[in-house]
């Protein structure tokens, strides 16, 4: 097994994991909350090094979603097993905290050497050979996969590929320091803006906002996503508080994506009884973001084929990116990132 990089050795062969904000205290022979980091003899090991769930998938970068980073490109997506949250609405619960992911992690804890692992350099060779431009760490929470993600991202940057994280934002300052030289962009899921709202979803608020600020300061380009769940995280006052915070701390150019809750995709029985998010409620959330001063707010509601996915210039109001679903049909931005109509400096990375 690969020894973990970010942990602290304590007395009686106990260790403290420092990868995510839970900072799990792990006794000898035990694993942390994410089930993927094992204490053996007072040393912490990752069970996920080279362990890929579902192989390499190819997606439009817009699907992650990234609308202001490398629009129109295809990205190779990779993920593994396990998560440090237990979200009741999780789309990828089968690999993150449910079965068969949990069963796979339990197997790895005692049979790691029997599991077929993939070397980072082999993934890079495959991506380059296929002609794709970047790699996305997604599906399960990539923070708990940090050692492999670090090594894979480092090789990707050497090969001229871009790298993105799709994350719940629970990383620590130490983890960001470790990853930042090799991660270009991150989409962070803001599930609300209070511990109470996060608890409703079986998630962990921690220092998600503060670490988003730190990641941006370390040079990671950020976009924010919020899945609006009726009666759970759709309180207008909390959404306004979140919007005001984003404008003040991450900047008004930060893209904020609102997506529709689908009860049929939720693993939790109570959440399965919650209705689809209404379009008018998504539009209300969008207006809260714009009223707070955010220049780019998007909506994705696949249940009704509804979207607000086009990007317009805040100065001249012309559309600079026209999208059909996840596919840009027209991009009127020059390579420095300026609007082709008026020259306004858009913070969009081509």
Topology:
Layout: E1 2-3, E2 7-9, E3 15-17, E4 25-26, E5 37-40, E6 43-46, E7 57-60, E8 74-78, H1 93-96, H2 101-111, H3 120-130, E9 134-137, H4 146-158, E10 162-167, H5 173-179, E11 185-189, H6 195-200, H7 208-217, E12 221-228, H8 236-249, E13 256-260, H9 279-292, E14 297-301, E15 306-308, E16 311-312, E17 319-324, E18 327-331
Parallel strand pairs: 8-9, 9-10, 10-11, 11-12, 12-13, 13-14
Antiparallel strand pairs: 1-6, 2-3, 3-4, 5-6, 7-8, 14-15, 16-17, 17-18
Which features would summarize this protein structure in a list?
single chain, 350 residues, alpha/beta, 3-stranded antiparallel beta sheet, 9 helices, 26% helix, 22% strand
Briefly characterize the structure.
The protein is of the alpha/beta class.
Question: What features would you describe in this structure?
Answer:
Helices cover 26% and strands 22% of the residues. The protein is an alpha/beta fold and 350 residues long. The protein starts with a strand and ends in a 19-residue tail after the last strand.
